[in-house]
Structures are given as structure tokens and as C-alpha cells.
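Researcher: I'm preparing a figure for a lab meeting and need a structural model of a single chain. I don't have an experimental structure, so a prediction will have to do for now. The sequence is pasted below. Please return the structure as C-alpha cells so I can convert it later.
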Amino acid sequence: VYYFFAVIFLVFAGLQYNDIDAGFWILVYLFPAICSVLAAEKQLNYVVVALGFVGYLFLLTQNFPDVEKLSLDHEEGRETMGLIICGNYVAILGIIKLYRESYRSFH
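Model: Understood. Here is the structure written out cell by cell.
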């Protein structure tokens, strides 16, 4: 499952090649892909998850469009949705790691 999501986020990163600020958006989508691979290899670190999640929250506050532009019909709305998806996915990876480690310690 982790590798599946890694591929999905790599595809998302690849779709950004024609954007004006492609480098930035490619990195935004590469981070969850890398985190997926790290999670699959059981190498994902809480510091990486926390920094990534806080980074996405920061980017979200900087990118948050006007209410009129929150629609997916506007580029700003689509960018905001991408940040929300990436931030939530990284947070979910951290929650899964926490669950697995706490489950292992009880059994």
C-alpha cells in the first residue's frame, strides 16, 4: 500500500512539470512519496513526519486563497487541495507509525 501511494504522489509530482513554479510543486508532492517509501521500509521518523506536517500547515496558511478562489475551478483552490491532501497523508503515516509501535509494545 505504501508503494502504491508513493507511485500516486510521484505521478502528482510529474504532472507539475508545466507549472510556472514547477520545482516548488514537484517538491510538495515528492515529500509524501518519499515518506511512503520510508514507511514501507520502516525507516519513517517522527521528526520527519512532524516537520512535514508543520511545513504543509505553514504552506497552507501562506497559500490559502480568497474564499471566492477556494473552488477547484481556480488554480489556487486546486493548489490548496493538494496541500491538504499531502499534509493529511503525512499525518496519517505518523498516526499509523504511532499505532503500530504502541500495539507492538502491548503485545
